[in-house]
Design goal:
There is one protein chain. The chain is an alpha+beta fold and about 200 residues long. The chain has helices at about 20-25, 50-60, 90-100, 160-180, 185-190, 195-200; strands at about 1-5, 35, 40-45, 65, 75, 110-115, 125-130, 135-140, 155-160. It has 2 domains: about 1-65, Alpha-Beta Plaits; about 75-200, 2-Layer Sandwich (Sulfite Reductase Hemoprotein, domain 1). The strands form 2 sheets. Strands 5-6-7-8-9 form a 5-stranded mixed beta sheet. The protein has a 4-stranded antiparallel beta sheet with strand order 2-3-1-4, with helices on one face. Helix 3 (about 90-100) packs parallel to helix 4. It is globular and about 50 Å long.
Length: about 200
């Protein structure tokens, strides 16, 4: 079976340590190839019978393990260069907990940036969150991997922290319930319309 592996969120971004690389090497068979994805995950093949043991060993070294395929990916975040508090590391960690690993009609990418520089390119993700001075801006329908690439549309502006997680949870649940099989999220937004999405949140 194939699993997705990524470092835990923190200041400095998704950086692998030497010990983490060693942990990954320890659980791999000699002939296994490792794929580095565009959304900062490593895809590795493991023996399905050893999944729980492998997952435990990787998590002990500070790595997160997620399913591959038609699931929502772990949060794609910036490097929190403005510091954990100012860039909103704590809310990013909470976002990651609610967005990662949900079965969805098509792989779903959620991006987060701790300031308006948006270095993690959240506006080219399916759902993008940018921390602003007075709250969070939420964008939907970005498409970065296509000859028809498109910038996400602003859904909500200056969302308070208390409302952010419920909004993102609703967007994922809505895609699960109403998305068509293999339908990209950008097309889902076009079909549903931004106005209807906004009304239901």
């Amino acid at each position: 079976m194939k699993i997705a592996v990524t470092p835990r969120l923190g200041v400095g971004g998704s950086l692998f340590t030497i010990d983490q690389w060693k942990s990954i090497g320890d659980v791999l068979a000699e002939d296994v190839k490792v794929e580095f994805t565009t959304f900062k995950q490593l895809y590795i093949e493991i023996n399905e019978a050893q999944y729980e043991d492998t997952k435990h060993k990787l998590e002990e070294s500070g790595l997160e393990v997620y399913p591959t395929g038609f699931f929502s990916k772990n949060l794609i975040a910036c490097n929190f260069c403005r510091g954990a508090e100012e860039a909103g590391l704590s809310i990013a960690i909470q976002l990651n907990e609610i967005v990662a690993g949900h079965a969805v009609p098509s792989p779903l990418k959620v991006g987060y940036a701790g300031c308006a520089n948006a270095t993690s390119e959240p506006l080219f993700k399916d759902i993008g969150i940018v921390k602003m001075k007075d709250g969070f801006n939420v964008y939907v329908g970005g498409e970065g991997k296509s000859i028809k690439a498109a910038v996400a549309q602003l859904l909500f502006e200056n969302v308070p922290e208390s409302r952010l997680l419920p909004i993102v949870q609703h967007l994922i649940s809505q895609f699960q319930a109403l998305g068509k099989k293999k339908e990209k999220y950008a097309r889902f937004i076009q079909r549903m319309t931004i106005e209807r999405i906004k009304e239901t949140c």
